[in-house]
Recover the amino acids of this structure.
């Protein structure tokens, strides 16, 4: 057993070097290209924007890299849109027949499909993103099993419905635990130590207090959520545990949300790229890595060259963001 | 001249402080490893992969066809300068270098382009595409669509069957060249309203019908609505709204917006307002129908006067999509005054009196 005293605890920080004006050039360039191609350029736009955020993020004097290509994401994008166009076509066809059996089965099929596609999408997205992310030349990798994750998701979803949503907190935590425990970075592994009960209490406090405080409690709620997710994240390097910590306060959340809101409203949305950069700066400013991470001793592991971005595109379609 | 870079060999995460010598043939990377042995690595420019993104103070490249890939990162200003001026497409994107050279100027140009593009698309491209689409859609499709909307709209309405039959008899007697089978309905409501759906259905609210005084005014109303149907105004309007909304949602990166418009529109048909030019077109077309049926064209301005009396606040023209009723009254009055020898259409007069009895 290792005994780590307070003094030997090293604190490392992640720095985000993105700049508003610089990102704005990239952002607006991509919007223009997306518009004149009636949306077909979107995959390339998305990739470049993510590449910018990755390459602006620094840990131990090295930046992160995102290796996705527009072509890979485009292939997934086309698949997702083809599936949804067919699905909607079937739904509209069924609705206009006015045949109640056909209508109900179409609606049922539609929602069932949406439900069942989400775990596959999450799996695909995590695996693709991990495979395409690196730092110091070392790649991330996701080793989760798709079938196992799928059944875990379906089970969690059903219990959540049966318990009228109460189980939702445990369900969310289980998903995160599964993903993190199957995530690798070279020879580093990850875990999520959060407890569903803690998340449930955070949500319960929010429901009880948000109306009483006329919404002001929201800032504390966001702080609590962020702390819950960040502080329970672990990294393991040759048996040593490394922790993440955020010390963001409710006042900080308020400042972030309030100023972002003002920026967006008063510039009619033109400030969007500046807001994105501000938000990331803000997040990383409060993030600390505690413990001895030997940033020079991570060994590369076997490469998972997963080039199917369909899951990533599907999550984008549902407007679900990873992490 | 050598530049300073950080080199990663792809096997471990160790940062190697290295120097790089660039010639037209290769990039030579040299460093001393942890065992103090000097290492020399050569990169061929055609295999080097750029990061494909611009960050001002840092450049990065990766190398290799097979995993693990080697990587360099550098904040050496001289190296960044060199890369930015490079002509090799593996190393540099000339568009990005140009855009980031003078950021503020680029931002102004990009924003102006964006606004220009948005204006042109919204006011020219979308209306053109939409009108083309609405005009080429097959008759059957238009009718199917109209039936779908009719079901949605009438779900909240009570149809007066008897009055509807009488009104239908009136319309059947009218001489109208219509591509679509015309079906008229009287809906019980205190609201003063009438509207047409694609594919031939017209709904008139009972309180408006009660205010109508003669067959000429009723022909004016029918003629006007038939025009919206014949000229596919409903479809054009919907397609334009939808096109505009899709465009706006793409602009703000929210694709789901499109579905919202579809949903909202289904309930908006009874409140649909047309653009001024479409409304004017419908008035003129309606007058033509009235002329064909030998009714007094003054029925049209009279109808508008009834509506005007019932509309409490008159919205100034520039604020409203509906051309101000006064404008339309003046315009149609002028046309009506040119009508020579007005005949009386006794068949329509009779059908009208039957409607009045049913109300």
């Amino acid at each position: 057993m290792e005994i780590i005293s307070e003094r030997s605890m090293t604190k490392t920080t992640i720095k985000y070097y993105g700049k508003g004006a610089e990102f704005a050039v990239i952002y607006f360039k991509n919007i223009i290209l997306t518009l004149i191609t009636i949306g077909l350029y979107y995959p390339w736009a998305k990739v470049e924007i993510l590449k910018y955020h990755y390459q602006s993020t620094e840990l131990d004097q090295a930046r992160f890299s995102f290796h996705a290509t527009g072509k890979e994401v485009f292939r997934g994008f086309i698949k997702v849109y083809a599936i949804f166009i067919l699905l909607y076509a079937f739904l509209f066809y069924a609705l206009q027949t006015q045949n109640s059996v056909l209508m109900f089965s179409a609606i049922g099929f539609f929602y069932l499909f949406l439900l069942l596609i989400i775990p596959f999408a999450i799996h695909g997205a995590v695996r693709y993103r991990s495979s395409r992310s690196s730092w110091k030349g070392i790649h991330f990798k996701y080793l989760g099993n798709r079938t196992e994750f799928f059944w875990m998701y379906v089970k969690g979803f059903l219990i959540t419905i049966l318990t009228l949503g109460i189980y939702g907190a445990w369900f969310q935590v289980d998903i995160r635990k599964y993903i993190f425990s199957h995530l690798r970075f070279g020879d580093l592994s990850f875990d999520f130590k959060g407890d569903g009960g803690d998340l449930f209490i955070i949500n319960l406090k929010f429901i009880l207090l948000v109306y009483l405080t006329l919404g002001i409690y929201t800032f504390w709620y966001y702080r609590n959520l962020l702390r819950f997710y960040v502080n329970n994240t672990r990294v393991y390097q040759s048996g040593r545990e490394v922790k993440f910590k955020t010390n963001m306060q409710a006042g900080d959340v308020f400042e972030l949300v309030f100023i972002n809101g003002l920026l967006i409203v008063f510039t009619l949305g033109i400030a969007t790229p500046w807001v994105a950069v501000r938000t990331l700066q803000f997040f990383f400013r409060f993030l600390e890595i505690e413990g001895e991470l030997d940033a020079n001793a991570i060994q590369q592991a076997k490469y998972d060259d997963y080039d199917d971005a369909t899951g990533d595109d599907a999550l984008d379609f549902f407007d679900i963001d990873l992490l | 001249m050598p530049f300073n870079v950080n080199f990663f060999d792809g096997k471990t995460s160790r940062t190697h402080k290295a120097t790089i010598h660039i010639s037209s043939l290769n990039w030579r990377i040299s460093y001393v490893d942890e065992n103090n042995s000097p290492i020399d690595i050569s990169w061929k420019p055609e295999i080097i992969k750029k990061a494909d993104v611009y960050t001002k103070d840092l450049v990065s490249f990766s190398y290799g066809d097979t995993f693990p890939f080697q990587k360099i990162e550098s904040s050496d200003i001289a190296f960044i300068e060199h890369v930015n001026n490079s002509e090799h497409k593996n190393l540099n994107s000339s568009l990005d270098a140009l855009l980031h050279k003078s950021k503020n100027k680029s931002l102004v140009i990009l924003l102006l382009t964006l606004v220009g593009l948005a204006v042109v698309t919204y006011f020219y491209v979308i209306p053109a595409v939409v009108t083309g689409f609405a005009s080429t859609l097959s008759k059957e499709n238009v009718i199917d669509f109209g039936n779908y909307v009719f079901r949605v709209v009438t779900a909240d309405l009570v149809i007066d069957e008897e009055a509807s039959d009488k009104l239908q008899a009136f319309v059947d007697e009218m001489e109208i060249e219509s591509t679509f089978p015309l079906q008229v309905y009287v809906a019980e409501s205190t609201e003063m309203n009438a509207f047409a759906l694609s594919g031939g259905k017209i709904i008139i609210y009972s309180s408006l019908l009660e205010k109508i005084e003669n067959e000429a005014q009723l022909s004016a109303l029918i003629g006007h609505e038939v025009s919206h149907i014949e000229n596919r105004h409903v479809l054009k309007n919907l397609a334009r709204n939808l096109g505009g909304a899709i465009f706006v949602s793409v602009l703000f990166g929210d694709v789901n917006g499109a579905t919202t418009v579809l949903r909202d529109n289904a309930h908006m048909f009874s409140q649909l307002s047309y653009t001024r030019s479409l409304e004017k077109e419908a008035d003129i077309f309606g007058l033509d129908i009235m002329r064909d049926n030998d009714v007094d064209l003054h029925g049209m301005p009279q109808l508008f006067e009834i509506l005007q009396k019932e509309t409490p606040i008159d919205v100034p023209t520039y604020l409203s999509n509906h051309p101000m009723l006064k404008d339309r009254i003046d315009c149609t009055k002028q046309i009506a005054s040119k009508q020579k020898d007005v005949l009386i259409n006794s068949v329509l007069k009779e059908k009208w009196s039957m409607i009045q009895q049913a109300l």
Chain A touches chain B through 49 residues (CB under 8 Å). Residues 1-8 of chain A have pLDDT under 50 and may be disordered.
